[in-house]
Amino acid sequence: xxxxxxxxxxxxxxxxxxxxxxxxxxxxxxxxxxxxxxxxxxxxxxxxxxxxxxxxxxxxxxxxxxxxxxxxxxxxxxxxxxxxxxxxxxxxxxxxxxxxxxxxxxxxxxxxxxx
Length: 115
Known about the structure:
By secondary structure, the chain is an alpha+beta fold. The protein has helices spanning 13-19, 54-71, 94-107; strands at 21-24, 28-34, 41-45, 79-85.
């Protein structure tokens, strides 16, 4: 789970889906919107179409959250984002997911620096 200040409240979802910039990676879709806060907030979604079983969906969410948790110190503040798992996410390892998130965030220029 994300630290409490880094969790995106559910009432912000509609605004981000409507106005956010979409960046598609190999395994994830990132929807980014700016906020006026000194922190960045995140949410993770994995649909039933991606994995029918809740156990698999929850594992995917845990992997994504853990990757973001490692990257939070390097991500520039003032960012709201929703991370959505794509069909080919399957059983990727955490390091692969973390590398892809770094790549996507570098493309959008929201990383403060790469480890």
